Amino acid sequence: MSQATDHANALPASPGRKLTLLPLVMVMFFTVSGGAYGLEDLVGSSGPGMALVLIVVTPLIWSLPTALMVAELSTAMPVPGGYYAWVKRALGPFWGFQEGWWSWITSFVDMAIYPVLFADYLNSLLIQSFDNHILEENAFAHWAVTLVIIWTFVFVNIRGSKGVGNASKYFGLFVLIPFGVMSVLGLFQMIGNPVAFWMPFVPEDTPVLSAFGTGLFVVMWNYLGWDGLSTVADEIHEPRRTFPRGLALCIPLVALAYLLPVGAGLQAAPEWSGWTAGFFPQVAAMVGGKWLGVWLAIGGLVSAAALFNALMLSISRLPYFLAEDGFLPQAITKRHPEYGTPWVAIALCASIYSFFTLSAFSSLVVIDVIVYSASLLLEFAALIALRAKEPTMRRPVRVPGGWFGIAVVTAFPTAVLALAVYSTWQEEGIGALYLSAGAIATGPILYPILNRYVKKGRPSVEVPIEHDDAPVAAK
Q1: How far is CA 215 from CA 42, 47, 49, 221, 399, in A?
Q2: Taking the model in full, what pTM does it have?
Q3: 3-472: in CATH 1.20.1740.10
């Protein structure tokens, strides 16, 4: 059996255990969004009108171009490893390693945020409902809550992608329904007592472009992660059909999940300058009463847990495929004898995230802006390189418009990422750039070391492609 065939069957799953369309959409929803939580700062910093414009515009200049790139590459190469495999095939093993390594190390901090958010939300509920300050006063108890969340969803992930998908469906209902109720109630209030909830368009004495740039930096991260589930392409039922359909459904779902609650909330809480992180439960209470505010607060708990669960599914595959290619110890490629999941890779990730939940590491989040930008730009480079090198590669979904279309879908996200890097520099200072450059540099530094002492000349797993006329082996 060839290496390419081995790779295609690297993580076997029966059809009954694979992600079908609805579970895929809900897992995708939580890898990208998780609800309108976190958008409060957008209103407070950019103003009501600009916030609403950005919620509508950002999918067009950021999500749609990225999704088109992901749709073309994921349907042309629906292989395990997703974006890691795309970049390796298009640009070679060096850049493939950078893609996988950078994407993995950014998760060390990102993934630790969600269990900490869960513990923070739980702390707030305990204080407000029971006047219980145990999580606020006892750092070990707070950390213990984060560990319970991490290792509970390790168990769910080890049981396979179908379990993650089913859990995401129920989590999605619990998160989306209260926002939906809030939106409907807000709509009736708009009809009965219409106000110009979109005014002022931007804060007083703030230039429109400045408000746009600041807000775009906030909202882009709420529309981020469309490539994530490509790493589990072999665990998706008929990925060439299901994955692009999932993207097409999830983009408007996320946009509406942001737009409707923000509009309804501004109708009920027009004092927009008071909108800060964690304000949505208070807004919901203004719209529908205390019961809705409590429901939304509990929804924040569920959202944080669901985000961790869904993201673990995609991120945990990165060390598995790096190990399969020989860059990490082969023990990481061990799979569960019953579920076929990479349980060692999942446990390795969970151990790292358990360590990074310690609050001392939260300041490192700023480096993710630039490191993530570097990895995403490599995916667009792979799109361009494969169009040039493999013009006859089978592409069930293509970015429309030929080379002009490729230029457009690459230019918009690149401009957004450049603005994000610039905003990081402006807000965090030159130190953030040094930290980011250091994190990026770990990839080129480690590559020759791991290549010589861990990989030891073993060939990389091939990434097969198909041409329009006949399937061919990778070069």
Answers
A1: 6, 9, 11, 11, 28
A2: 0.91
A3: yes
